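Schema walk-through. Below, the input block comes first and the output block second. Nothing else is stored per chain. Lengths vary across the set, and this one has 110 residues.
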Amino acid sequence: MDQAVPFNIDVHRLRDMIGRGEDFRILDIREPWETEICGFDDSLEISMRTLPARLDELPRDKPLVVICHHGVRSLHATQWLRHVGMRNAINLQGGIDAWARQIDLRCPTY
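--- output ---
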């Protein structure tokens, strides 16, 4: 990755990244029961509690947008990921809830 990766983005920025076809991955750290309600196709679904054991499954060569329900767990996970050397981790502020309320109104909220 050649350019600096922001620590936080909002759902509008994520929508723009998707629309432009940017090369990135979404890491959904919610629990399986949560990801069944709504989520993103092709996201990596690794719950926060299992993240340390599955660190080797995460891409390091592209931005990694970390999401949760409201953006609190993803904030902590992004801080931890950056601490362990994953400078490509980005927190999605507001989480899937903000996405469902501001971008994709078809996505169920909980």
